[in-house]
Amino acid sequence: MLDEISLKILKILQDKARIPNIEVSRIIGMAPSAVLERIRKLENQGYIDGYEIRLNPGRFDQSQVAFIRVRSREAPEKAPCLGDALAEIPEVQEVHFVAGEDCYLIKARVSDTAELGRLLREKIAPLAGVQSTRSMPVLATFKETSRIPIYRMIAPDGQPGGSSQ
After folding, report:
1. How many CA atoms lie within 13 A of 165 on its CB side?
2. CA 164 from chain center: how many Å?
3. How far apart are CA 56 and CA 68, in angstroms?
4. Where along the chain do its domains lie?
5. pLDDT tens-digit profile of 49-84?
6. Which residues are bridge partners to 95 per DSSP?
7. Are the C-beta atoms of 33 and 24 separated by less than 8 Å?
């Protein structure tokens, strides 16, 4: 179980991964060496998967996002092979094996709808096991994040185990 200090460190790092250790220690009120030790422990325990930067998709002509539902010809227990193949496509950012008629929900990022069409025709449809696809090009994005809502784990009194509201 994570304590309040570890949760606060995770929240700080999630908000600004490049924050200097000395700044984290100042905010938390601990020695920099103690903070660094906690961060290494959180990494070793698997709470921190890694650090990454967010690039501006528009600067790379990759502003068009689409969600694509992929139906597999294969039985559900064999469908994960298709998931691996979908995950290998560079334009595909996320692959989710889902319940329902469609086996996969993927998120792709391309330059425009013409490129989306090429992605569907040339990279997704030819994959073994693809029965059909249904695309939903995104018109506007109001929120996009991979952050975990850590604040929900800290009660108003600052203690771990807060409400899940």
Report:
1. 4
2. 21
3. 22
4. 4-52, 57-137
5. 988 888 899 999 999 999 999 999 876 666 668 999
6. 106
7. no
The conformational region for residue 141 under phi > 0 = left, psi -120 to 50 = alpha, else beta, is beta
Identity of the residue numbered 159 = Q
Contact 79/131 with Cβ under 8 angstroms?
A: no
Amino acid in the structure at residue 16: K
Q: By the 8 A CB rule, do 72 and 132 touch?
A: no
**Distance between CA atoms of residues 10 and 81, nearest Å:** 34
Alpha-carbon torsion, ordered 11, 13, 16, 20, to 10 deg:
130
* Domain at 57-137: CATH code: 3.30.70.920
Locus of tokens 């990494």:
43
- pTM of the predicted structure, to 2 decimals: 0.78
- Name the one residue in this structure whose structure tokens are 């994005």: 141
In DSSP terms, 71 is beta-bridged to 132
Task: Look up the CATH architecture of domain 4-52.
Answer: Orthogonal Bundle (1.10)
pLDDT digits (tens, 9 = 90+) for 125-161: 999 899 999 999 999 999 998 888 886 665 555 554 5
Pairing of strands 104-110, 92-97: antiparallel
Phi and psi, residue 145, nearest 5° = -155, 160
Q: How far apart are CA 134 and CA 19, in angstroms?
A: 41
